[in-house]
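Appendix C reproduces, verbatim, an entry submitted by the partner laboratory led by Prof. M.T., so that reviewers can inspect both the input and the predicted structure.
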Amino acid sequence: MTAQTIPAESKLAFHVERGPQRLTVALRGEASFDQAEVLSARLLQIPLDGYSLVVLDLAELTFISSRAIRALFEFGLALRQRGVEVRHANVQAHVWLALEAAGLGKLFEPMDLEPHTRPAANAGT
């Protein structure tokens, strides 16, 4: 399995792990209103390399705005149109409530996933 950390603006960080069965994208920090464009741009920059399953690990996502929810929705919809399954894992309860209220609970099915084991990250990684 290979891993890559994609630095982002100060409030939101991305960590990509390429496993044999799936591509895992871990989000950490706050997906606030002003971070939604960063979220969308970073997600679109991730090469899929033929994966048919992408898992969004949201264990360390502490906040999500409606605009960031829309970015996740558009990302998931674009991948599904390409035949890629998108699922979520490790969602904190308050983030799950926001996703469910927006209808993303039906778009991204949950998946059991062990918390990612990346090294302690510096801010912005």
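The longest strand covers residues 53-64. Additional entries are available on request from the coordinating office.
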